[in-house]
Amino acid sequence: MYKVLIIDDEEPLREAITILGDWQGLGVEQLLEATNGNMGLDMLRQHKIDLAIVDMKMPELNGSEFLQIVEQDYPDLLTIVISGYNDFEYTRQAIRSKVVDYLLKPVNRIDLNAALQKAIDILEAKRKKESEFINKNITLNMSLPKLKEKMYFSIIERSFKNQSNEAFLPLIGADTAGNHFVAGHMRVLNLEQVRKERFHKDSDLLHFAVTNVINEISDDQLQAFSFLSPKGEREYIAIFTMKGGYKEDAAYRTLYHMKKVASSLKELFGFVVAAGLGHPYGDIMDIAKSYDTAKTVLNSVDLLKLKGSIVANHSDKITSKDNPSLTSRMPLIRNALESGSMNHAKSILSEFTKKWRDSEGFSIGEADRTLQEFIILLNDVASELNVPLERLRSEEEKGLGGLGILGDFASFEQFEALLNEILDRYSAEISKVLAGDRSSVLGNIKAYIDNHYFENIKISLFTDKYFLSREYLMKLFKGQYGYGIHEYVQKVRMDKAKDLLGDPNLKIQDISEMLGYKDKNYFSKAFRNYYECSPTEYRIVLGGGEK
After folding, report:
1. What is the band of 138 on the pLDDT scale with cuts at 50, 70, 90?
2. Where in the cell is it found (predicted)?
Protein backbone atom coordinates (compact mmCIF):
# COMPACT_ATOMS: atom_id res chain seq x y z
CA MET A 1 0.00 0.00 0.00
CA TYR A 2 1.19 3.50 -0.81
CA LYS A 3 0.93 7.08 0.45
CA VAL A 4 0.51 9.95 -2.01
CA LEU A 5 0.96 13.67 -1.36
CA ILE A 6 -0.72 16.34 -3.53
CA ILE A 7 1.07 19.73 -3.38
CA ASP A 8 -0.84 22.59 -5.03
CA ASP A 9 -2.02 25.98 -3.86
CA GLU A 10 -5.25 25.71 -5.89
CA GLU A 11 -7.97 23.83 -4.01
CA PRO A 12 -10.01 23.03 -7.19
CA LEU A 13 -7.02 21.24 -8.73
CA ARG A 14 -6.35 19.27 -5.54
CA GLU A 15 -10.00 18.31 -5.43
CA ALA A 16 -9.99 17.30 -9.11
CA ILE A 17 -6.96 15.06 -8.62
CA THR A 18 -8.61 13.49 -5.56
CA ILE A 19 -11.77 12.73 -7.54
CA LEU A 20 -10.14 11.56 -10.79
CA GLY A 21 -7.49 9.24 -9.35
CA ASP A 22 -8.22 5.51 -9.14
CA TRP A 23 -6.66 5.35 -5.68
CA GLN A 24 -8.21 2.10 -4.51
CA GLY A 25 -7.35 0.32 -7.74
CA LEU A 26 -3.77 1.57 -7.51
CA GLY A 27 -3.37 0.42 -3.92
CA VAL A 28 -3.12 3.91 -2.37
CA GLU A 29 -4.08 3.71 1.28
CA GLN A 30 -3.62 7.36 2.22
CA LEU A 31 -3.98 10.60 0.26
CA LEU A 32 -2.47 13.74 1.82
CA GLU A 33 -2.58 17.39 0.73
CA ALA A 34 -0.32 20.44 1.06
CA THR A 35 -0.97 23.98 -0.19
CA ASN A 36 2.65 24.96 -0.92
CA GLY A 37 6.20 23.60 -1.13
CA ASN A 38 7.12 24.36 2.51
CA MET A 39 4.04 22.61 3.80
CA GLY A 40 4.86 19.73 1.47
CA LEU A 41 8.34 19.39 3.02
CA ASP A 42 6.75 19.34 6.48
CA MET A 43 4.47 16.51 5.36
CA LEU A 44 7.47 14.59 4.02
CA ARG A 45 9.15 14.86 7.42
CA GLN A 46 6.05 13.59 9.21
CA HIS A 47 4.99 10.81 6.85
CA LYS A 48 6.64 8.16 4.71
CA ILE A 49 5.44 9.46 1.36
CA ASP A 50 5.89 7.25 -1.70
CA LEU A 51 4.75 9.67 -4.41
CA ALA A 52 4.32 13.45 -4.57
CA ILE A 53 2.23 15.25 -7.20
CA VAL A 54 3.73 18.74 -7.49
CA ASP A 55 2.47 21.91 -9.16
CA MET A 56 5.38 23.92 -10.59
CA LYS A 57 3.90 27.37 -9.85
CA MET A 58 3.29 27.87 -6.14
CA PRO A 59 3.83 30.69 -3.60
CA GLU A 60 6.59 30.59 -0.98
CA LEU A 61 8.40 27.56 -2.42
CA ASN A 62 7.72 26.75 -6.07
CA GLY A 63 7.94 23.37 -7.74
CA SER A 64 11.48 23.79 -9.07
CA GLU A 65 12.83 24.73 -5.62
CA PHE A 66 10.87 21.89 -4.02
CA LEU A 67 12.32 19.35 -6.47
CA GLN A 68 15.88 20.53 -5.77
CA ILE A 69 15.41 19.93 -2.05
CA VAL A 70 13.71 16.58 -2.63
CA GLU A 71 16.53 15.47 -4.91
CA GLN A 72 18.99 16.00 -2.06
CA ASP A 73 16.97 15.02 1.00
CA TYR A 74 14.45 12.50 -0.36
CA PRO A 75 16.13 10.72 -3.30
CA ASP A 76 13.70 7.77 -3.17
CA LEU A 77 10.60 9.94 -3.48
CA LEU A 78 8.83 9.66 -6.83
CA THR A 79 7.31 12.82 -8.26
CA ILE A 80 4.77 13.75 -10.93
CA VAL A 81 4.91 17.35 -12.19
CA ILE A 82 1.85 19.43 -13.14
CA SER A 83 2.29 22.58 -15.21
CA GLY A 84 0.47 24.87 -17.61
CA TYR A 85 1.41 25.40 -21.24
CA ASN A 86 3.26 28.58 -20.32
CA ASP A 87 5.17 27.07 -17.40
CA PHE A 88 7.68 24.89 -19.21
CA GLU A 89 10.62 27.03 -18.16
CA TYR A 90 10.10 25.66 -14.66
CA THR A 91 10.51 22.07 -15.79
CA ARG A 92 14.25 22.21 -16.42
CA GLN A 93 14.66 21.15 -12.81
CA ALA A 94 11.99 18.50 -13.36
CA ILE A 95 14.11 16.91 -16.09
CA ARG A 96 17.16 16.91 -13.83
CA SER A 97 15.12 15.38 -11.03
CA LYS A 98 13.92 12.51 -13.23
CA VAL A 99 10.24 12.94 -12.54
CA VAL A 100 7.91 10.08 -13.41
CA ASP A 101 5.68 12.05 -15.78
CA TYR A 102 4.57 15.52 -16.86
CA LEU A 103 0.90 16.45 -16.80
CA LEU A 104 -0.52 19.56 -18.44
CA LYS A 105 -3.40 21.55 -16.98
CA PRO A 106 -6.27 20.89 -16.99
CA VAL A 107 -5.60 17.38 -15.72
CA ASN A 108 -7.81 14.65 -17.17
CA ARG A 109 -8.64 11.22 -15.78
CA ILE A 110 -6.84 9.13 -18.41
CA ASP A 111 -3.49 10.97 -18.27
CA LEU A 112 -3.56 11.21 -14.48
CA ASN A 113 -4.20 7.51 -13.91
CA ALA A 114 -1.68 6.54 -16.58
CA ALA A 115 0.97 8.60 -14.77
CA LEU A 116 -0.08 7.19 -11.40
CA GLN A 117 0.06 3.64 -12.72
CA LYS A 118 3.54 4.30 -14.06
CA ALA A 119 4.65 5.54 -10.62
CA ILE A 120 3.08 2.55 -8.87
CA ASP A 121 4.84 0.21 -11.30
CA ILE A 122 8.14 1.86 -10.44
CA LEU A 123 7.47 1.60 -6.72
CA GLU A 124 6.69 -2.08 -7.04
CA ALA A 125 9.86 -2.62 -9.05
CA LYS A 126 11.88 -0.88 -6.37
CA ARG A 127 10.29 -2.90 -3.61
CA LYS A 128 11.23 -6.09 -5.36
CA LYS A 129 14.79 -4.78 -5.55
CA GLU A 130 15.33 -6.30 -8.98
CA SER A 131 18.47 -4.30 -9.58
CA GLU A 132 20.33 -1.10 -8.77
CA PHE A 133 19.90 -0.09 -12.40
CA ILE A 134 16.12 -0.14 -12.06
CA ASN A 135 16.25 1.86 -8.82
CA LYS A 136 18.38 4.62 -10.32
CA ASN A 137 17.21 4.83 -13.91
CA ILE A 138 13.72 3.45 -14.44
CA THR A 139 12.02 6.80 -13.80
CA LEU A 140 14.07 8.54 -16.44
CA ASN A 141 13.72 5.67 -18.90
CA MET A 142 9.95 5.59 -18.60
CA SER A 143 9.22 9.30 -18.62
CA LEU A 144 11.51 10.83 -21.23
CA PRO A 145 10.45 8.60 -24.17
CA LYS A 146 6.84 9.47 -23.44
CA LEU A 147 7.72 13.15 -23.32
CA LYS A 148 9.56 12.91 -26.65
CA GLU A 149 6.57 11.12 -28.16
CA LYS A 150 4.25 13.91 -27.02
CA MET A 151 6.57 16.53 -28.45
CA TYR A 152 6.97 14.86 -31.83
CA PHE A 153 3.26 14.22 -32.17
CA SER A 154 2.37 17.80 -31.23
CA ILE A 155 4.75 19.00 -33.98
CA ILE A 156 3.13 16.63 -36.49
CA GLU A 157 -0.30 17.87 -35.40
CA ARG A 158 0.99 21.46 -35.66
CA SER A 159 0.01 22.24 -32.07
CA PHE A 160 3.58 22.56 -30.73
CA LYS A 161 4.47 25.98 -29.31
CA ASN A 162 8.19 26.49 -29.82
CA GLN A 163 8.63 29.36 -27.39
CA SER A 164 6.78 27.67 -24.54
CA ASN A 165 8.58 24.35 -25.04
CA GLU A 166 12.09 25.68 -25.53
CA ALA A 167 13.38 23.77 -22.49
CA PHE A 168 12.52 20.45 -24.14
CA LEU A 169 14.03 21.03 -27.58
CA PRO A 170 17.43 19.51 -26.68
CA LEU A 171 15.65 16.20 -26.00
CA ILE A 172 14.86 15.83 -29.72
CA GLY A 173 18.05 17.30 -31.14
CA ALA A 174 16.34 20.51 -32.23
CA ASP A 175 19.00 22.74 -30.67
CA THR A 176 21.87 21.40 -32.80
CA ALA A 177 22.69 23.17 -36.04
CA GLY A 178 23.17 21.01 -39.12
CA ASN A 179 20.80 18.21 -38.09
CA HIS A 180 18.36 16.84 -40.65
CA PHE A 181 14.98 15.35 -39.77
CA VAL A 182 12.86 12.83 -41.70
CA ALA A 183 9.43 11.50 -40.74
CA GLY A 184 8.24 8.01 -41.58
CA HIS A 185 4.82 6.37 -41.47
CA MET A 186 4.71 2.56 -41.19
CA ARG A 187 1.83 0.11 -41.16
CA VAL A 188 1.96 -3.51 -40.02
CA LEU A 189 -0.26 -5.24 -42.57
CA ASN A 190 -0.67 -8.54 -40.70
CA LEU A 191 -0.65 -7.18 -37.15
CA GLU A 192 -3.66 -9.12 -35.82
CA GLN A 193 -2.39 -12.43 -37.18
CA VAL A 194 1.06 -11.98 -35.62
CA ARG A 195 -0.38 -10.68 -32.34
CA LYS A 196 -2.42 -13.84 -32.02
CA GLU A 197 0.22 -16.31 -33.18
CA ARG A 198 3.44 -14.82 -31.79
CA PHE A 199 2.47 -12.50 -28.94
CA HIS A 200 -0.46 -14.36 -27.36
CA LYS A 201 -2.71 -11.33 -28.02
CA ASP A 202 -0.46 -9.08 -25.90
CA SER A 203 -0.70 -5.68 -27.67
CA ASP A 204 1.74 -3.86 -25.39
CA LEU A 205 4.46 -6.44 -25.95
CA LEU A 206 3.88 -6.34 -29.70
CA HIS A 207 4.11 -2.54 -29.88
CA PHE A 208 7.28 -2.60 -27.78
CA ALA A 209 8.84 -5.15 -30.14
CA VAL A 210 8.07 -3.08 -33.25
CA THR A 211 9.30 0.25 -31.88
CA ASN A 212 12.35 -1.39 -30.33
CA VAL A 213 13.43 -2.80 -33.70
CA ILE A 214 12.98 0.61 -35.37
CA ASN A 215 14.89 2.43 -32.63
CA GLU A 216 17.70 -0.07 -32.23
CA ILE A 217 18.77 -0.16 -35.86
CA SER A 218 20.64 3.14 -35.52
CA ASP A 219 24.23 4.32 -35.66
CA ASP A 220 26.29 7.29 -34.47
CA GLN A 221 25.10 9.50 -37.32
CA LEU A 222 21.47 8.45 -37.83
CA GLN A 223 19.16 7.92 -34.86
CA ALA A 224 15.53 6.81 -34.90
CA PHE A 225 12.71 7.34 -32.44
CA SER A 226 9.37 5.63 -33.05
CA PHE A 227 6.02 5.22 -31.35
CA LEU A 228 2.56 3.86 -31.97
CA SER A 229 0.35 6.34 -33.80
CA PRO A 230 -2.52 7.51 -31.58
CA LYS A 231 -4.76 7.35 -34.64
CA GLY A 232 -4.28 3.71 -35.64
CA GLU A 233 -3.26 0.59 -33.75
CA ARG A 234 -1.39 -0.95 -36.69
CA GLU A 235 0.38 2.29 -37.64
CA TYR A 236 3.67 3.66 -36.32
CA ILE A 237 5.38 7.03 -36.59
CA ALA A 238 9.18 7.16 -36.87
CA ILE A 239 11.32 10.30 -36.63
CA PHE A 240 14.88 10.08 -37.95
CA THR A 241 17.59 12.54 -36.92
CA MET A 242 20.82 12.66 -38.91
CA LYS A 243 23.78 14.59 -37.53
CA GLY A 244 25.38 16.77 -40.18
CA GLY A 245 25.77 15.80 -43.83
CA TYR A 246 23.47 16.75 -46.70
CA LYS A 247 19.74 16.36 -47.22
CA GLU A 248 20.40 13.82 -49.96
CA ASP A 249 22.45 11.76 -47.48
CA ALA A 250 19.62 11.91 -44.95
CA ALA A 251 17.11 10.68 -47.54
CA TYR A 252 19.34 7.81 -48.67
CA ARG A 253 20.35 6.68 -45.17
CA THR A 254 16.78 6.85 -43.91
CA LEU A 255 15.52 4.72 -46.80
CA TYR A 256 18.30 2.18 -46.17
CA HIS A 257 17.49 2.15 -42.43
CA MET A 258 13.76 1.61 -43.01
CA LYS A 259 14.35 -1.24 -45.45
CA LYS A 260 16.57 -2.86 -42.84
CA VAL A 261 13.80 -2.42 -40.28
CA ALA A 262 11.26 -4.07 -42.59
CA SER A 263 13.60 -7.00 -43.18
CA SER A 264 14.30 -7.44 -39.45
CA LEU A 265 10.63 -7.30 -38.49
CA LYS A 266 9.87 -9.99 -41.06
CA GLU A 267 12.75 -12.18 -39.98
CA LEU A 268 12.22 -11.83 -36.22
CA PHE A 269 8.44 -11.84 -35.92
CA GLY A 270 6.90 -12.48 -39.33
CA PHE A 271 5.59 -8.94 -39.75
CA VAL A 272 4.71 -7.68 -43.23
CA VAL A 273 5.00 -3.90 -43.33
CA ALA A 274 4.45 -1.01 -45.73
CA ALA A 275 6.23 2.25 -45.00
CA GLY A 276 6.44 5.72 -46.49
CA LEU A 277 9.18 8.29 -45.91
CA GLY A 278 8.97 12.07 -46.31
CA HIS A 279 11.42 14.76 -47.36
CA PRO A 280 14.40 15.60 -45.10
CA TYR A 281 14.33 19.04 -43.44
CA GLY A 282 16.75 21.06 -41.37
CA ASP A 283 14.07 22.59 -39.15
CA ILE A 284 12.43 20.30 -36.58
CA MET A 285 9.08 22.04 -37.15
CA ASP A 286 9.10 20.83 -40.76
CA ILE A 287 8.71 17.20 -39.76
CA ALA A 288 4.97 17.92 -39.97
CA LYS A 289 5.39 18.43 -43.73
CA SER A 290 7.71 15.41 -43.92
CA TYR A 291 5.10 13.28 -42.15
CA ASP A 292 2.32 14.45 -44.49
CA THR A 293 4.45 13.31 -47.44
CA ALA A 294 5.27 10.00 -45.74
CA LYS A 295 1.61 9.27 -45.17
CA THR A 296 0.76 10.15 -48.78
CA VAL A 297 3.53 7.87 -50.02
CA LEU A 298 2.28 4.98 -47.87
CA ASN A 299 -1.35 5.45 -48.92
CA SER A 300 -0.25 5.46 -52.58
CA VAL A 301 1.34 1.98 -52.44
CA ASP A 302 -0.37 -0.16 -55.10
CA LEU A 303 -2.14 -3.04 -53.39
CA LEU A 304 -2.39 -4.92 -56.69
CA LYS A 305 1.40 -5.12 -56.92
CA LEU A 306 2.11 -5.64 -53.22
CA LYS A 307 4.02 -8.87 -52.63
CA GLY A 308 5.40 -8.65 -49.09
CA SER A 309 6.97 -5.70 -47.25
CA ILE A 310 7.64 -2.44 -49.08
CA VAL A 311 9.38 0.84 -48.22
CA ALA A 312 8.86 3.90 -50.45
CA ASN A 313 9.96 7.50 -50.15
CA HIS A 314 9.14 10.88 -51.59
CA SER A 315 11.09 10.20 -54.79
CA ASP A 316 8.79 7.33 -55.82
CA LYS A 317 6.19 8.22 -58.43
CA ILE A 318 2.76 8.85 -56.95
CA THR A 319 -0.16 8.55 -59.35
CA SER A 320 -3.77 9.40 -58.63
CA LYS A 321 -6.36 6.98 -59.99
CA ASP A 322 -10.10 7.38 -60.14
CA ASN A 323 -11.53 3.96 -59.34
CA PRO A 324 -15.31 3.48 -59.10
CA SER A 325 -17.05 3.54 -55.74
CA LEU A 326 -19.13 0.73 -54.23
CA THR A 327 -21.97 3.19 -53.66
CA SER A 328 -23.51 2.50 -57.07
CA ARG A 329 -23.84 -1.23 -56.30
CA MET A 330 -25.36 -0.91 -52.82
CA PRO A 331 -29.02 -0.93 -53.97
CA LEU A 332 -28.38 -4.30 -55.65
CA ILE A 333 -26.53 -5.64 -52.61
CA ARG A 334 -29.33 -4.37 -50.37
CA ASN A 335 -31.99 -6.20 -52.44
CA ALA A 336 -29.93 -9.38 -52.31
CA LEU A 337 -29.49 -9.17 -48.54
CA GLU A 338 -33.16 -8.39 -48.08
CA SER A 339 -34.17 -11.41 -50.14
CA GLY A 340 -31.81 -13.64 -48.18
CA SER A 341 -29.62 -14.34 -51.21
CA MET A 342 -26.11 -14.09 -49.76
CA ASN A 343 -24.54 -15.73 -52.79
CA HIS A 344 -26.09 -13.13 -55.07
CA ALA A 345 -24.81 -10.31 -52.83
CA LYS A 346 -21.32 -11.79 -52.96
CA SER A 347 -21.46 -12.16 -56.74
CA ILE A 348 -22.36 -8.46 -57.06
CA LEU A 349 -19.42 -7.57 -54.83
CA SER A 350 -17.12 -9.90 -56.75
CA GLU A 351 -18.08 -8.35 -60.10
CA PHE A 352 -17.23 -4.95 -58.70
CA THR A 353 -13.89 -5.90 -57.13
CA LYS A 354 -12.92 -7.45 -60.45
CA LYS A 355 -13.04 -3.94 -61.94
CA TRP A 356 -10.47 -2.83 -59.36
CA ARG A 357 -8.32 -5.90 -59.99
CA ASP A 358 -8.34 -5.20 -63.72
CA SER A 359 -7.61 -1.48 -63.28
CA GLU A 360 -4.23 0.24 -63.59
CA GLY A 361 -3.81 0.34 -59.84
CA PHE A 362 -5.59 0.19 -56.48
CA SER A 363 -3.80 1.84 -53.56
CA ILE A 364 -3.74 1.08 -49.83
CA GLY A 365 -5.39 4.45 -49.25
CA GLU A 366 -8.23 3.51 -51.60
CA ALA A 367 -8.61 0.21 -49.77
CA ASP A 368 -8.88 2.03 -46.43
CA ARG A 369 -11.48 4.44 -47.78
CA THR A 370 -13.43 1.59 -49.37
CA LEU A 371 -13.56 -0.34 -46.09
CA GLN A 372 -14.83 2.71 -44.21
CA GLU A 373 -17.34 3.49 -46.95
CA PHE A 374 -18.56 -0.12 -47.13
CA ILE A 375 -19.21 -0.26 -43.39
CA ILE A 376 -21.07 3.07 -43.48
CA LEU A 377 -23.21 1.91 -46.41
CA LEU A 378 -23.95 -1.44 -44.74
CA ASN A 379 -24.87 0.39 -41.53
CA ASP A 380 -27.38 2.39 -43.57
CA VAL A 381 -28.80 -0.81 -45.07
CA ALA A 382 -29.03 -2.42 -41.63
CA SER A 383 -30.84 0.65 -40.24
CA GLU A 384 -33.29 0.66 -43.16
CA LEU A 385 -34.06 -3.00 -42.46
CA ASN A 386 -34.53 -2.31 -38.73
CA VAL A 387 -31.42 -4.19 -37.63
CA PRO A 388 -30.14 -2.73 -34.31
CA LEU A 389 -26.53 -1.65 -34.86
CA GLU A 390 -25.63 -2.72 -31.31
CA ARG A 391 -26.14 -6.30 -32.50
CA LEU A 392 -23.40 -5.75 -35.05
CA ARG A 393 -20.84 -3.70 -33.16
CA SER A 394 -19.08 -3.93 -29.83
CA GLU A 395 -19.21 -0.73 -27.76
CA GLU A 396 -15.72 -1.43 -26.40
CA GLU A 397 -13.90 -1.59 -29.74
CA LYS A 398 -13.92 0.66 -32.77
CA GLY A 399 -13.41 -0.04 -36.45
CA LEU A 400 -13.28 -3.59 -37.72
CA GLY A 401 -12.43 -4.87 -34.25
CA GLY A 402 -15.88 -3.76 -33.14
CA LEU A 403 -17.36 -6.09 -35.77
CA GLY A 404 -15.25 -8.98 -34.51
CA ILE A 405 -13.10 -8.86 -37.67
CA LEU A 406 -9.28 -8.78 -37.57
CA GLY A 407 -8.83 -6.34 -40.45
CA ASP A 408 -5.47 -7.57 -41.80
CA PHE A 409 -4.75 -7.32 -45.52
CA ALA A 410 -1.34 -7.53 -47.15
CA SER A 411 -2.54 -8.15 -50.71
CA PHE A 412 -5.54 -7.36 -52.88
CA GLU A 413 -6.79 -10.94 -52.45
CA GLN A 414 -6.79 -10.52 -48.67
CA PHE A 415 -8.53 -7.15 -49.03
CA GLU A 416 -11.22 -8.75 -51.19
CA ALA A 417 -11.63 -11.54 -48.62
CA LEU A 418 -11.98 -8.88 -45.91
CA LEU A 419 -14.82 -7.18 -47.82
CA ASN A 420 -16.59 -10.54 -48.05
CA GLU A 421 -16.07 -11.17 -44.35
CA ILE A 422 -17.66 -7.80 -43.55
CA LEU A 423 -20.56 -8.64 -45.87
CA ASP A 424 -20.96 -12.02 -44.11
CA ARG A 425 -21.12 -10.28 -40.73
CA TYR A 426 -23.89 -7.92 -41.77
CA SER A 427 -25.75 -10.56 -43.75
CA ALA A 428 -25.94 -12.87 -40.74
CA GLU A 429 -27.55 -10.22 -38.53
CA ILE A 430 -29.84 -8.94 -41.29
CA SER A 431 -31.04 -12.50 -41.96
CA LYS A 432 -31.80 -13.07 -38.26
CA VAL A 433 -33.89 -9.92 -38.00
CA LEU A 434 -35.66 -10.36 -41.32
CA ALA A 435 -36.50 -13.98 -40.53
CA GLY A 436 -38.62 -12.75 -37.64
CA ASP A 437 -39.96 -9.79 -39.61
CA ARG A 438 -40.86 -11.91 -42.64
CA SER A 439 -42.87 -14.30 -40.52
CA SER A 440 -44.79 -11.37 -39.08
CA VAL A 441 -45.26 -9.78 -42.53
CA LEU A 442 -46.56 -13.01 -44.06
CA GLY A 443 -48.94 -13.48 -41.13
CA ASN A 444 -50.27 -9.96 -41.63
CA ILE A 445 -50.82 -10.56 -45.35
CA LYS A 446 -52.66 -13.84 -44.70
CA ALA A 447 -54.86 -12.20 -42.07
CA TYR A 448 -55.69 -9.36 -44.44
CA ILE A 449 -56.76 -11.82 -47.14
CA ASP A 450 -58.84 -13.81 -44.62
CA ASN A 451 -60.73 -10.63 -43.72
CA HIS A 452 -60.90 -8.91 -47.13
CA TYR A 453 -61.28 -11.84 -49.54
CA PHE A 454 -64.32 -10.16 -51.11
CA GLU A 455 -62.24 -7.16 -52.27
CA ASN A 456 -60.12 -6.79 -55.40
CA ILE A 457 -56.77 -7.70 -53.78
CA LYS A 458 -53.66 -6.69 -55.73
CA ILE A 459 -50.11 -7.81 -54.98
CA SER A 460 -48.91 -4.20 -55.20
CA LEU A 461 -50.89 -3.48 -52.03
CA PHE A 462 -48.40 -5.61 -50.08
CA THR A 463 -45.23 -4.85 -52.04
CA ASP A 464 -45.74 -1.13 -51.50
CA LYS A 465 -46.52 -1.52 -47.82
CA TYR A 466 -43.67 -3.85 -46.92
CA PHE A 467 -41.06 -2.65 -49.48
CA LEU A 468 -40.66 -6.12 -50.98
CA SER A 469 -40.38 -7.09 -54.63
CA ARG A 470 -43.34 -8.92 -56.22
CA GLU A 471 -41.31 -12.00 -57.08
CA TYR A 472 -39.69 -12.24 -53.65
CA LEU A 473 -42.99 -11.78 -51.80
CA MET A 474 -44.74 -14.43 -53.89
CA LYS A 475 -41.85 -16.82 -53.22
CA LEU A 476 -41.97 -16.19 -49.46
CA PHE A 477 -45.73 -16.57 -49.20
CA LYS A 478 -45.83 -19.83 -51.12
CA GLY A 479 -42.93 -21.17 -49.11
CA GLN A 480 -44.77 -20.36 -45.88
CA TYR A 481 -48.35 -21.46 -46.76
CA GLY A 482 -48.05 -23.65 -49.84
CA TYR A 483 -50.11 -21.28 -52.01
CA GLY A 484 -49.32 -18.22 -54.07
CA ILE A 485 -51.14 -15.08 -52.95
CA HIS A 486 -53.68 -15.23 -55.81
CA GLU A 487 -54.14 -18.94 -55.20
CA TYR A 488 -54.79 -18.29 -51.51
CA VAL A 489 -57.35 -15.57 -52.27
CA GLN A 490 -59.13 -18.05 -54.53
CA LYS A 491 -58.97 -20.76 -51.87
CA VAL A 492 -60.47 -18.49 -49.19
CA ARG A 493 -63.28 -17.44 -51.55
CA MET A 494 -64.05 -21.02 -52.52
CA ASP A 495 -64.01 -22.25 -48.91
CA LYS A 496 -66.35 -19.39 -48.02
CA ALA A 497 -68.54 -20.18 -51.02
CA LYS A 498 -69.12 -23.74 -49.76
CA ASP A 499 -70.18 -22.39 -46.37
CA LEU A 500 -72.57 -19.85 -47.92
CA LEU A 501 -74.08 -22.38 -50.34
CA GLY A 502 -75.07 -24.42 -47.31
CA ASP A 503 -77.59 -21.69 -46.41
CA PRO A 504 -80.70 -22.30 -48.58
CA ASN A 505 -81.98 -18.81 -47.89
CA LEU A 506 -79.12 -17.21 -49.87
CA LYS A 507 -79.42 -16.84 -53.61
CA ILE A 508 -76.39 -17.72 -55.75
CA GLN A 509 -76.41 -14.18 -57.11
CA ASP A 510 -76.16 -12.84 -53.52
CA ILE A 511 -73.36 -15.26 -52.69
CA SER A 512 -71.52 -14.17 -55.83
CA GLU A 513 -71.68 -10.54 -54.72
CA MET A 514 -70.69 -11.39 -51.14
CA LEU A 515 -67.55 -13.10 -52.43
CA GLY A 516 -66.55 -10.13 -54.58
CA TYR A 517 -67.44 -11.55 -58.02
CA LYS A 518 -68.85 -9.22 -60.64
CA ASP A 519 -71.71 -11.50 -61.69
CA LYS A 520 -73.27 -14.90 -61.06
CA ASN A 521 -71.88 -16.49 -64.22
CA TYR A 522 -68.26 -15.53 -63.41
CA PHE A 523 -68.65 -16.98 -59.92
CA SER A 524 -70.20 -20.18 -61.25
CA LYS A 525 -67.36 -20.65 -63.71
CA ALA A 526 -64.75 -20.09 -60.99
CA PHE A 527 -66.55 -22.53 -58.65
CA ARG A 528 -66.75 -25.22 -61.32
CA ASN A 529 -63.04 -24.85 -62.15
CA TYR A 530 -62.19 -25.23 -58.48
CA TYR A 531 -64.59 -28.04 -57.42
CA GLU A 532 -65.50 -29.59 -60.82
CA CYS A 533 -69.18 -28.89 -60.26
CA SER A 534 -71.38 -25.83 -60.43
CA PRO A 535 -72.76 -24.04 -57.35
CA THR A 536 -76.24 -25.40 -58.22
CA GLU A 537 -74.99 -28.98 -58.46
CA TYR A 538 -73.20 -28.57 -55.15
CA ARG A 539 -76.45 -27.40 -53.50
CA ILE A 540 -78.32 -30.36 -54.89
CA VAL A 541 -75.74 -32.65 -53.31
CA LEU A 542 -76.25 -30.82 -50.02
CA GLY A 543 -80.06 -31.29 -50.37
CA GLY A 544 -81.05 -27.81 -51.35
CA GLY A 545 -82.22 -26.27 -54.56
CA GLU A 546 -81.14 -23.41 -56.81
CA LYS A 547 -82.32 -19.99 -55.97
Report:
1. very low
2. Cytoplasm
